[in-house]
Amino acid sequence: MTSIRLTSLSHAAGCGCKLGSNDLSEVLRHLPAIQDANVLVDAATRDDAAVYRLSADRALVVTVDFFTPIVDDPAAWGAIAAANALSDVYAMGGRPLLALNLVGWPRGIVPFEVLGEVLRGAAEITRQAGCLMLGGHSIDDPEPKFGLAVVGEVHPDRMFTNAAARPGDRLVLTKPLGTGILTTALKRNLRDEAGLAAAVASMTALNDGAARAAATAGVRCATDVTGFGLLGHLGNILAASGVGARIEAARLPVLDGALELAAGGCVPGGTQRNLEAAPAAWAPELTAAERFICTDAQTSGGLLLAVAPGRLAALLSGLEAEGTLAAAVVGEILPQANGLSVVRGAEQ
Ligand code: CO
Ligand code: CO
Q: Is residue 143 part of a domain?
């Protein structure tokens, strides 16, 4: 429909150019401290969304997410951005209710008909989620940006947080890793859009089934894996829960081609920064590519769930019934003194 490559208008290398984890500490300290008994989750635990209790059995889940184009197909970009924004509601155990579009658009450079495709792609995903798209806000912007603000709800006693992991819990991941590396390959002309189909299918898949299976299995600790990569988001769980963890790299589900591309140096800037910031003890046998997979900046990644060992089998069969793209046991929560380590481990 247009000869303009959306990704060429994005200065970010495939990761939406999220600020780094250390940058975020700088930003968050400027937020005022909140003293309100109905605020169940705020920024202090770096959770995926804020949670505000309305009554004993209802709480609002509120979140916002947007980024620059990571694929050239405008409808796919809209769909990915929508699935990514909705995911933060699912990562809290919630159900999305309402959404608003956030749009930055290079007026006069990219036709509005392309924006129409972005909105159409997003609306298809919110429809799948049973979430009502009610409007939004747009600005003239040299760099296209798109995302959603989402309001959902959760029962206050059944929400998932970063703070509920306990030593002995198993870590389960519900989508493959590698979307940052693969979308960077598109930007660098190492892959065409057809070669990105599996990554796009993963990024547009809702985490609703994973959240349902987790809730049914009694999971209380979850996050979704996005810009800070697996280890960065796991790090938020470890800090909020006061625990350590061990990841087994051989058990990680990985999109086809991502390891080879990373080994050849196709690594987004965000992934590099995540690796530099990761406070992990790496087993010496791990290759550089394996380490990049552990820190690859994901867009619309899967849920990372911490589940008590006695509930693991129920969770895995629930994930299988929901047809999640992965249901991989990738590690274990340990006491805090163990810190965070990554070993090769055994393939499942
Ligand atoms: Co998130
Ligand atoms: Co988010």
A: yes
CA 46, 48, 50, 56 dihedral sign is negative
Nearest in space to 85 (alpha carbons), one of 103, 68, 99: 99
Q: Do residues 126 and 247 both lie within one domain?
A: no
Q: Are residues 169 and 133 in the same domain?
A: no
Spatial neighbors of 123 by CB under 8 A, at least 6 apart, are 78, 82, 133
Range of the domain at 124: 6-154
CA of 86 to the centre of ligand 2 (A): 9
Per-residue pLDDT tens listing for the chain (348 residues): 456 889 888 765 444 456 777 777 788 888 888 889 999 998 888 889 999 999 999 999 999 999 999 999 999 999 999 999 999 999 999 999 999 999 999 999 999 999 999 999 999 999 999 999 999 999 999 999 999 999 999 999 999 999 999 999 999 999 999 999 999 999 999 999 888 999 999 999 999 999 999 999 999 999 999 999 999 999 999 999 999 999 999 999 999 999 999 999 999 999 999 999 998 999 999 999 999 999 999 999 999 999 999 999 999 999 999 999 999 999 999 999 999 999 999 865
Domain end residue (candidates: 154, 188, 207): 154
The domain total for the chain is 2
Task: Give me the active site residues, please.
Answer: 15
Beta-carbon neighbours within 5 Å of ion ligand 1: 48, 88, 224, 226
- Report the separation in Å between the CA atom of 83 and the middle of ligand 1, taken as the mean of its atom positions: 11
One domain, residues 190 and 119: no
